[in-house]
Amino acid sequence: MAANAIKKQSILFPNSNEAVAVFPSATNKAEDIVAALDIKPYKAIILVLGGAASIDEKLIPRLAQLFGRGIARAAAEANAIIIDGGTQAGVMAMMGEGVAGRGYESMLVGVAPASKVTYPGDSATGVQLEPNHSHFVLVEGNEWGTETAIIFNLASVLTGKTKGAANLERKTGKPDSEKVASKAPGLAVLAGGGPISTDEALRSVRHNLPLIVVEGSGGLADEIAAAWKQRETLPDDPVMAEIIADGEIHLHLLSNSVKGMERLIIRELGVDKVLMQAWEVFADYDLNAKIQQDRFGIVQFAILSVGVVGTALAISQQVFAPSDGDGNLLPVSLAPDANGHRQIGWWILHHGLIIIPILLTVLVTAATRFKQGSKWLLLRAGAESIKREIYRYRARAMNYKKDPEQQLSQGVEDITRRTMRTEVNLSALVPYNKDKGFPPYMDAAKGGDDGFSYLTPDRYVEVRLGDQLNYFRKSSLRLEKQLKALYWLTFIIGGIGTYLAAVNQQVWIALTTALVAAIGTYLGYRQTENTLTKYNQAVTDLANVKAWWNALSAEEQSLQENIDSLVEHTEQVLQSELDGWVQQMQNALAELRKGQEPAPEKEENREPREPASPPEPDLPEERLRGDGEPGNREANGDVKPRAETGEDQQPAQEDRNAGGGAGTAASSAINGKDDHKS
Length: 678
Fold this sequence. Notes:
Layout: E1 7-12, E2 18-23, H1 30-37, E3 44-50, H2 60-78, E4 80-84, H3 90-101, E5 108-113, E6 117-118, E7 127-128, E8 135-139, H4 148-158, H5 163-166, H6 168-172, H7 176-179, E9 186-191, H8 195-206, E10 211-215, H9 219-229, H10 238-246, E11 249-253, H11 258-268, H12 273-320, H13 344-370, H14 372-395, H15 404-419, H16 457-502, H17 509-526, H18 528-551, H19 554-557, H20 560-596, H21 602-605, E12 632-633, E13 639-640, H22 667-675
Parallel strand pairs: 2-8, 3-4, 3-9, 4-5, 5-8, 6-7, 9-10, 10-11
Antiparallel strand pairs: 1-2, 12-13
């Protein structure tokens, strides 16, 4: 049935609040209901579960503060839609009052059986609808609880976790981006509750929604809190056992600060200010690394091009310019010769040959002084170090299990302080424009990662390990094709040089030699061979970690030490790859500068050659033993992850001519290193 076939009406309450009510039939799909509600753009979903009449009256004042100053405030900050039971009772009434007390900043959708409620203008008897809601979905059904399935179907569509969400644009006539991101975060809050709330809590777990339990609010909430504290031994009740075993449960003690509930909701919805700031710093570093990379490529391409063009012009002058009988070049002048011809072309060539060395000197001096190459490496290393801390934080692994916000803040501070003590501090950082997408686009975004949500182990494997594994595999193929193409070009140019020598055109061999040297210079400073080698090593290491994780039993995958090992080994592989690449590139840039700098300035202008990456947190010394550790299995059966062994993973660098530069013909290839670093 189409969305416009759903009955829809406005309800005006005595407090002058006007709500939209829809009356779907059993045949209407959740996306039809969402389209009929015509909700405003939003960024998150909060489900409010719990008791309607079983709450101890002594707890109501504290709960009212919790809903008004905690949940309602967090919903407004996160631009979240709140969904509850919609009646003037229990937690629903407190939620309505809380939203009204904050000026109706959030949409509040109530879902209830139409036959069990009443409202102004309705002659039926039943429980009054709460008058501060913005929307109601009044479903068919004669018993409380018949609305539960609709509540979670709506949540699935609104969070973008069903195919119905993809049809929302067709239903509403508006792009999804005007309504919600591809996947909006969601969570459920439980206070009190009875049998119906038990079903709702179970559905929350099965829909992978974090469940915040208000401990001390009575009823089901206290039962879950008690079972969660004893989760090493699951309860006999199969429903409660599933909630405890599979749920992402967070306890909030009713007597604790209301602000704590607000921060907990904000964090779980991804509106985490510490994480937000970390992504902002990453975005700035990432953008400016690309800017410095492009500038470096342009200058090196100019140096390389001017050098090759200068060689070609010098040979052309030697071969074609007018000369006397002894082979000496005739003076070049714009004055007409005896035949009245002006030597404009040769005059331009003559002065061009004078200008080219000057231009080369200017370009080399600019490259030496501005140090775009070093700034690129430093900013890239800083950005990747921050991103590693972000993913550790999101997975709550290792040292991020306790006080994760403080740990992330300190980690980012250490990295930025270290980075800004280098020549990066000599450049103004261009701020990232969030309108281009925030966090900055990464391949993982294809899987709907919002950049803020908590990452379960399997989700971490998908959006971090799997994303990087796919990147390295694709990049290895691209680099191999590029390397073969450049080698073939070198062979062909060499063959042309041999042919020119055979036909007594030796003067042109200098040009072919210059072209071959230019290609060698490009391969040398780009470290294409070594980068390909390290990419293949990273593919092997990441594949080993993934295979180790997939081979664990479900019980082993639930152990925190194995989760920590998964995250740390993955991040160590990525760190090892980046550190090796940075060191190789720094060595290549140092050799490039040695060939470009004027002799008197070599020592004065030489940059430090120590590794550019900011200091990383100390890696744990302890390892899993036996079959529980990912890595490469040796002949004796021991497992040794490559990232932790003492093996030298960095291949010996090829001795290449670094007397020239690199170009923007290579710029797109250089950007390849940034593809997985963004």
